[in-house]
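Lab meeting minutes (informal)
Scribe: AK
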Amino acid sequence: MPDTLRQAIRQLHAALGPAAAGLRPAVLEQACVGYLTLHPTGRIERAGLLAVADMDLPNTVERLWVIDLKNAQVLHRSLVAHGEGSGHLRARRFSNEEKSACTSLGFYRTADTYDGIHGYSRRIEGLDKGQNANAYDRYVVLHAADYASPKYVQQHGHLGYSRGCPALPPEQFKDIIATLRVGSLLLVSGPGLASRWLDGPAAGRRFLKRGWL
């Protein structure tokens, strides 16, 4: 990755302030590189917005961030659940397979909203072939769950588990889903993440031309 981009990401992290203190620099770097690589391809229509979930952190901490890149602001920070097939406190096993109940790593594009068994939900489309491309067909979506709440952590010492969805706290899910309108980018990061979109040189060239937009 060019030093110019690496320095810009460091400056972004610092500007995000205390709300991003738990966002590991290496994960923010992954998210920014993927955003800058994907946006010019037309797969991501919404400029200047980025969501990242760090599944390598324990599920007892807020490990989802929604970031306004242009204004260097954390718009939302919340708990987020992982799939029951992926592990206990931290997600350690990942799968793209039907009925695996696992979280799938990689980059996602947010799609339409609908009212389903979990109420108001937003579908997401996996952009990494072989890793998360089945997400749409698996109905891996953003939705609310009582087991993804601070109250659940207080009672049980950990979050509950989804069937692979990045489930959100009932108190925050509507605002987060509304912010991540169609065409926004979400990175679900974790151990062993590999993606064709983690192209540092391409991201560096894009940043020099257009910055974060």
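Next up, CB showed the second protein from the same session:
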Amino acid sequence: MSKRTVNILLSWLGTKDIENMLDGEKNASISTLATNSQTPFDKIVILSNHQHKYWEKFENFVKKRMATIGRPHQDIQVHKANIASPIDYESIHQVTALWINKLSEEADSLSINLTSGTPAMTTLSVLIGKGKSNVQFLQASPNNELLHVDIPIDFGQEYVKSASKNIANTATSEPKVEQAFSALTAKSVQMQNVVNKAKKIAASEVPALILGETGTGKELMATAIHKGSLRANKPLKVINCGAFAENLVDSTLFGHKKGAFTGAEKDHPGLFEQADGGTLFLDEVGELTPEIQVKLLRALQQGEINCLGDTQTTNVDVRVIAATHKDLSKLVEEGKFREDLFYRLAVGIIQMPALRERIEDITVIVNQLVEQINKVGSKHPDYTSKNISEKGMKFILSQPWQGNIRELWSTLNRAFLWSDSQTITENDLSNAMINRAKNESFTDVTLSYDDKIDITQLVDKYKKAYVLAALKASGNVKSHAAQMLNLKDHQTLSNWMKRLNIKHEK
């Protein structure tokens, strides 16, 4: 004799279920699923934390419906659900998990109603139920038709994919190191001076020009200046001037009218109009063409712009902050950047120091970046939180970081990704560094007839500079420094050091 299969329906008690019962004993989701299911339910479990006075009446209503059509009707009951509120995920999770685990053990087939209850109840029913092989999902249409719900998603796999994607996106985005640029965390004298100057510029209305190498945080400084200004509650708009084609820069900055060019299907306000009353940050301003420079100068001088396809001028009130890693004064000399525009922008000048020039700040910045990496990684089920060893921190402090914070950020992400250890060592960091091809171009040397130089002294000067740089980068490990300088062995390096009067620090 074959074993009888047990089919169970689990549902939350919905407000509509009660209302329809009271309104002439009409069907709603629970009674619809119970009566229309192809396979009768041997047991119906209903969870609720409200309208207690109607529970017994609702039980009898469903039992009557089942008895009328000859279906099992003895085991139909509303159970009290101890939840904090209908939208409290934690308590709903506890109740839902308890009942799904219990009933899936009892049943050959457990059906879960997704129509009744709050979105929180439905969401947790799906997440927990998907982990059971004998669970199926049902819902009722507005016309009281039974619908089978297919959810072909592996939530565990999707969670891992989402967490992995988040780690990847964070690693390739800009690091969030706002605190490293504030007065509270700028330990170095260089950064304290920069921040103090930035505060004075922020309080004024003058245009600002932020200079510095790639990755020094020029956009971050522009944002801080905007937030510290009287325009803080107005828009801050940002554009990388080197990221757009010439024709798009004009439209992006100054806007265009419908029909101004092929594809201009409607009027488009440019960033100057969008930033009216606020601030416009022009990153890599040195990339602007002479034509755009003329229009930018007019916007700065007269507060007027012309959008493409329009003969009328528009008045705007915008503070401009520009930034570049290029030498603008040199571009002016070469005729590539307008001198009058340069002096219009270069009122509040800020020179962002390179990371290697602010050693006192590096440890603070590293700790912030490590915290970010661990916070993002913690969302991944296989991630282990990591820290950096003392020697690893010394290695970081010894590097030149030509890409500045951006290079440091990328290096830390690679080291944390590749290492299986909880402690990131100097070896891990060294392996995560990207070897840069050195520029070995040599400027032609010209000498006049009576010129005299000490060639030996000149050569020794360069040798000493490179030996010291190699020792610093290698953490004073002579064998590695010798490899960096392409010397035969560490003894050869020692001989050089002796002749160049370089003392070896252990």
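CB comment: The chain has a mean pLDDT of 87.
No objections, moving on.
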